[in-house]
Amino acid sequence: MSPQLRRNLLVAALLVGSALSPAAFAQEVNPDASIRIGSLYEPQNLDNTAGAGQGINEAFNGNVYEALFQLTDAGSVEPKLVDSYEASEDGLTYTFKLKDGVTFHSGEPLTAADVKYSIERVTAEASQSSRKRSLSTITGIETPDDQTVVITLSARSISLPYNLSYVWIVNDAATDITATEDGTGPYSLAEWRRGSALALERFDGYWGEAPSNGEVVYTYFTDATALNNALLTNAVDIITSVQSPDSLAQFAGNSSFTVTEGASTTKELLAYNDRVAPFDNVLVRKALARATDKARLLNSIWGDYGTLIGSFVPPTDPWYVDLTGVDAYDVESAKALLAEAGYPDGFEFTLDTPDYDPHPIVAQFLQTEYAKIGVTVNINIITANEWYTKIYQEKNFEATLQEHVNHRDIVFYGNPDFYWGYNNPEVVQLVADAEAASSEDEQTEKLRQANEIIAEDAASNWLYLYPQIVVSAANVTGYPVNGLNSQFFAYDIEKSE
Question: Which domains does the chain have, with CATH numbers?
Answer without folding.
Answer: 3-63+185-264+468-495 (3.40.190.10), 69-164 (3.90.76.10), 267-465 (3.10.105.10)
